[in-house]
Design brief:
Elements (H helix, E strand, L loop, with lengths): L2 H9 L5 H22 L6 E6 L14 H13 L6 E8 L2 H14 L4 E6 L2 H11 L5 E5 L8 H8 L8 E8 L1 H6 L9 H11 L3 H9 L7 H23 L4 E7 L9 E7 L2 H27 L9 H29 L5 E2 L4 H4 L1 H4 L5 H13 L17 E2 L3
Parallel strand pairs: 1-2, 1-4, 2-3, 4-5
Antiparallel strand pairs: 5-7, 6-7, 8-9
């Protein structure tokens, strides 16, 4: 067994904390994406590409992305207005792809599913042709660096590219290891050029060095450098794709008090995608917090009679109250400028870095209701479903 096979096999033995979050987000997002985009597609077809699919399931039986998407495809096919979901899995590690094929054989009966072994870069053109004119969601979650940016751009510029197209990318923290070469006495230029390709140019080098100018930089500086490069990556992707593309960036941590392990970058050309992904990210984070609450209670008195869950619900209510108050304060401050606005146009002022992907409609609705009750706006959120694009007027 090669060293890469050993590493991948170990990784797939059990689901790690960070995987709980990314899978919870996909679990929340897959259904509304397929439901909405499939309502207008030929034969209600929708395509999902999982470019680094893994084993499908972990050795302890928990769902990986493959098993989850297979389950979603069955659920969507069974809806009163069914969606025909086509799944394309790619996995490079031979041991892992053998496990994936077994999962597909067991769970994929009646579905359109392909499994390719090898590099996603090799198979991507073929898979994009297969999805010609069909709504497409591509999930790219490598153990190492992501594919070059021009290949990500090709997903959006695929045949039938007017069909809804969305991508969720794991921009891995392996970036830190490569970026360390920038201050090394013996940098490997070929490796740095590989990151150049991922980032769509060498701009990331200066961005990193602005935060981390030497090899003795602190952990906080390294995290700041990572975040700056990730935000730059999202901006570069928007630039390469032209106008009308929106992105979300979610940092994924093993625990709330620890540094990010990696970052999820979501890209879409449709406002509905932005709004729905924001809801999904918030619900995914809620599931992640619940997972940690249960984990922390193991072998304690809180584990008895599910006392941990009652405590978790109390904590969730406290978080909700805190978020609503923060949103209400920021909305009020913006209204004080005397002009109507939409939250979607004021993300930094209203959501900031702390609430992006954290809050969702129920929090925004409660905040707007508070601002209304305080007499600071004439806009009533009652009965409005899309609050991020709602025009909020001063009282």
């Amino acid at each position: 067994m090669s060293s890469s096979s050993t590493s991948t096999s170990k990784f797939h033995k059990s689901r790690k904390s960070a995987a709980v979050l990314k899978h919870a987000i996909i679990n929340q997002y897959a259904t509304p994406f397929a439901s909405k985009t499939g309502s207008r597609s030929l034969d209600h077809r929708v395509t999902f590409i999982d470019g680094y699919a893994g084993a499908g399931r972990y050795d302890d039986g928990a769902e990986g992305s493959g098993a989850m998407l297979l389950r979603k495809a069955h659920e969507l096919a069974a809806m009163s207005s069914p969606r025909q979901v086509e799944l394309h899995f790619v996995e490079q590690d031979p041991v892992t792809v053998a496990k994936l094929r077994k999962v597909v054989a067991a769970d994929g009966n009646g579905l359109t599913v392909t499994v390719d072994d090898g590099d996603i870069s090799v198979h991507l053109p073929k898979l994009l042709r297969a999805a010609d004119g069909i709504p497409l969601f591509a999930y790219l979650d490598p153990c190492g660096l992501i594919i070059p940016m021009d290949e990500v751009v090709s997903i959006f510029n695929r045949p039938g590219g007017t069909a809804p197209t969305e991508v969720l990318i794991n921009l891995t923290a392996h970036l830190r290891r490569f970026a360390g070469m920038l201050t090394s006495d013996n940098p490997i230029e070929a490796s740095l050029k590989r990151v150049d390709a991922v980032c769509g140019g060498d701009w990331w080098r200066d961005t990193w060095l602005e935060k981390c100018a030497n090899k003795d930089a602190s952990e906080d500086d390294k995290v700041a450098a990572e975040e700056a490069v990730v935000e730059g990556y999202a901006a570069k992707l928007r630039e390469c794709l032209g106008g009308g593309v929106g992105t979300w960036v979610i940092d994924v941590r093993p625990r709330a008090d620890l540094k990010p392990l990696y970052y999820l970058v979501f890209a879409t050309r449709h406002i509905d995608g932005m709004l729905t992904f924001g809801e999904s990210a918030s619900l995914g984070l809620q599931e992640w917090r619940k997972y940690h609450a249960k984990l922390a209670a193991e072998n304690t008195l809180f584990a008895e009679n599910d006392a941990w869950e009652k405590h978790w619900k109390v904590q969730e209510e406290l978080l909700k109250k805190q978020w609503v108050e923060t949103l209400a304060e920021r909305i009020t401050d913006e209204l004080a400028k005397g002009e109507a606005f939409r939250i979607i146009d004021k993300p930094e002022e209203i959501l900031g870095q702390d609430l992006v992907g954290v809050v969702r409609t129920l929090h925004v609705r409660a905040a707007l209701k508070k601002v209304l009750d305080d007499g600071n706006t004439s806009t009533d959120p009652k009965g409005k479903s899309d609050l991020l694009t709602l025009r909020i007027k001063p009282a």
